[in-house]
Amino acid sequence: MADTRRLFFALEMPDDVQRQIVQWRAENFPDDAGRPVAAANLHLTLAFLGEVSAEKQKALCQLAGRIQQQGFTITLDDAGLWARSRVVWLGPRHASLGLIQLANMLRAQAARNGCYQSPQPYHPHVTLYRNASQTVAIPQPNFRWQFKVEEFVLYESVFEKGRTRYRPLQRWPLGIRTSKEE
Ligand code: 2AM
User: Fold this and answer.
1) What per-residue confidence (pLDDT) applies to 176?
2) How many CB atoms within 10 Å of residue 117?
3) What is the b/e burial string over 39-56, where b = at least 16 CB atoms within 10 angstroms of the residue's CB?
4) Which of 13, 100, 118, 177 is the most buried (most CB within 10 A)?
5) Is 75 exposed, middle or buried (0-12, 13-18, 19+ CB in 10 A)?
6) Alpha carbons 114 and 99: distance in angstroms, whole number
7) Residue 125 bears catalytic tag
């Protein structure tokens, strides 16, 4: 499609959490578990936008900039396999209200601007493997990674040299701005 970008809003993993996840994955899954997501690509999607024109991107970024919400904490303490999409994931057992609120707001803004949104409820997750083997055993979630979220990010998904890379385009801090700061 001409002049469009494949975009999504997401949360970045802190470097130390990213490292620990990759180490846990290497220690707990066999080599043929599936196609591992590169460490630098680990993220938690808030809203997938699909192929977006520059004009629509601008409109969505303006709306994103108006979101007024406090930061929140994410706890990754669960893991599983979605057999149909063949995805191995990590996620929170109990998603914080702030996370759900932010994702739902971005998803609603996207839908109102013509970006298709799945009717499925939002399931916060970090994809660990794609094309997972149907028989892969999911280890006990013997971890609890916790981090504070103070910003959200618009990413572009770029496919080059046979690899997908997620490129951050813009960031928005979380926190309630006073009228003086605006
Ligand atoms: P996934 O991790 O569950 O695969 C960039 O592709 C991000 O957008 C990924 O996190 C991916 O989620 C998500 N994504 C890709 N296609 C999507 C779709 N059709 N609907 C919802 N999310 C999608």
Assistant:
1) 79
2) 17
3) eebbbbbbbbbbebeeeb
4) 13
5) middle
6) 23
7) yes
* Distance of alpha carbon 110 from alpha carbon 49, whole angstroms: 7
Task: Give the global pTM.
Answer: 0.95
Please report the beta strands in the chain, taking only residues with DSSP state E, as ranges in sequence order. Answer: 4-12, 35-36, 43-53, 72-76, 78-82, 87-91, 126-130, 145-149, 151-160, 163-173
DSSP SS3 for 107: helix
Mark the ranges of the chain whose per-residue pLDDT is less than 50.
Answer: none
94 is annotated as an active-site residue:
no
Q: Is 65 helix (H, G, I), strand (E, B) or coil?
A: helix
DSSP 132-166: --TTPPPPP----EEEEE-EEEEEEEEEETTEEEE
Task: Give 178 Cα–ligand 1 centroid separation in angstroms.
Answer: 34
Distance from CA of residue 116 to its chain's centroid? 17
Cα of 48 to ligand 1 centre, how many Å? 6
* Residue 2 confidence (pLDDT): 65
- 157 Cβ below 6 A of ligand 1: yes
Amino acid letter for position 98: G
The predicted-structure confidence for 74-100, as pLDDT tens digits, reads as follows 999 999 999 999 999 999 999 999 999
